[in-house]
Amino acid sequence: MDVAAMQRALREFSAEREWQRFNTPRNLALALVGEVGELAELLQWLTDEEAAAIADDGGDDGADPAAQRLRQRAGEEVSDVLAYLLLLAESLGVDVERAFTAKLAANAEKYPAHLARGSAAKYTDLRPEG
Amino acid sequence: MDVAAMQRALREFSAEREWQRFNTPRNLALALVGEVGELAELLQWLTDEEAAAIADDGGDDGADPAAQRLRQRAGEEVSDVLAYLLLLAESLGVDVERAFTAKLAANAEKYPAHLARGSAAKYTDLRPEG
Amino acid sequence: MDVAAMQRALREFSAEREWQRFNTPRNLALALVGEVGELAELLQWLTDEEAAAIADDGGDDGADPAAQRLRQRAGEEVSDVLAYLLLLAESLGVDVERAFTAKLAANAEKYPAHLARGSAAKYTDLRPEG
Amino acid sequence: MDVAAMQRALREFSAEREWQRFNTPRNLALALVGEVGELAELLQWLTDEEAAAIADDGGDDGADPAAQRLRQRAGEEVSDVLAYLLLLAESLGVDVERAFTAKLAANAEKYPAHLARGSAAKYTDLRPEG
Prior knowledge:
Four copies of one chain form a homotetramer.
Chain A: H1 3-16, H2 25-43, H3 48-53, H4 65-91, H5 96-110, H6 113-116, H7 120-124
Helix pairs in contact in A: 1-4, 2-4
C-alpha cells in the first residue's frame, strides 16, 4: 500500500464524518504529539532487552502473549502516529514520497558510507540542523 | 512508493553505514520525539492562518518565498519523522500496512459516519483509550 | 513551594513504593513524552480563542463549567509533566534552580531587549541551536 | 527558588521583549514539544548505562568531560522545557504549586504504598486515564 493510497483512505474517512475542518496544521501537529506520547508510554518502563523482545515474540502463533499484546498495541499506536503525520503533511502541501526520497538522498550525500560507518556521533548528526 | 519500499531504502541506508545496532525500539522512539519536536518548532509561533498558508503558496512557482521555504522545511521534518517511525515499527516487528488498515477499519466501526458527523467531541475520542 | 521541596516530595513518593529503580533517564524521558502528549491532546482541537478562554473562565466560581473542567485537567497534566521533568533532572544530576537561572541569564544576554522587542523571528531563535 | 519566582522572572523576560502576545496556550504547547525533542535527542543513542553515567560524572570537578558536557546540555534543555511549561501553565490559568500538590495527593491515594510497592504495572497506571 503506497502513501498516496493511505492518504486517500484518510481523506475519505475524514470526509464521511465531515472532519476536514479539524485537519489544520497546528491541530494535527498537536494530535501527532498526543499519539507519539501513547507510543512512548508503551516503551517507558521496559528495559532495552524487554523492548527488543516485542519483535521476537515468535510471530502471531508465538509463545509470549505479553510480547504479542505489546506488539498489537504498538501497531495501533504506530498507525495513529502515521495517520496524523500523513494528514499533517497534506495540510502543509507536502508531497510525502517526493520529500522522503529527496531527504534520504541528501542524507546519503551528507553521510558518506565510508566515513559514517559505525559512528554514533555521525548518526547523532542525522538531524535537520546537523 | 509503498511503505515496504521506504523501509527497504531505510534498511539499506542503515546497513551501508553499519548503523543497525543503533536501531533499537527505545533509541528510535526517542529519535522520533526529537524529529517531532523539529516539526512542532516550525509551527509554534504561526497563527492558524499563517500555518494554513504554507500549503497555499502557489506551488513551487508560487509567489510566497517564505511559505515555500516553510513548506520545504516541513517536507524535510515530515520525512525525518516518517523515517524514524518506519524504523521503529520494524524494530517492534510491526507490519505497518497491515496495522494501518486494521486500525482504520476499527475506527470506521467505532465512529459510524452518521453519528460522528462534524463532531469534534467524537474526533477527540479517536484515541487508543477513547 | 520551591523546586527542591517538589523533588523531595517526589523522591518520598517513589521511595514509599520502591519505584526508584524505574527512575532512569531514558525511562523518565519517555514518561515525560507520554505526559506532554496528554497535555497536547487537551489543546489539539481547540481554536486559539477557545484555548485562551481556559484561563478566562471567571475563576473557580466562574460561569463556564467546560473551561473550568479543561483548566482542572490542564492542571493535572501540567503536574504530571512537571513531576517527570523534575525526576528526570534528578536522574541526570541536574541542579534545576541553578540551571534555570543560568539559562535565563544566557538568553537575556543573547536577546538584548532593545533588539528582540516584539520580534517573533528572534523568539523563534530562542532554541538551543538558535 | 519557588515556582512563583520562576514565573515572575519569565514574565519579566517576556515583557522586556514585548513577547507576551506570543505566549498563547497552543504556541507554548508546541514550543514545549520542541524543547522536549531537544532533551530526547540528548539521550537517543545512549545505552541506559551511559545515560546513568551522566549523573555520576564526579561533579563539576569530576573526571569525565563527556559526561559533564552532557550534563551541562541536559541542564539547558531541562530549563527550556521548564520555562515553556511554566509559561503554558500561566497561559491556562493553572496554579502550578496548587495543582502539583493536589495531583501528588490524588496519586498517593490511588496507589497505596503497600499495594503499589515495586510494581512496574502499577507505575504504568500512573497516567491520567489510568
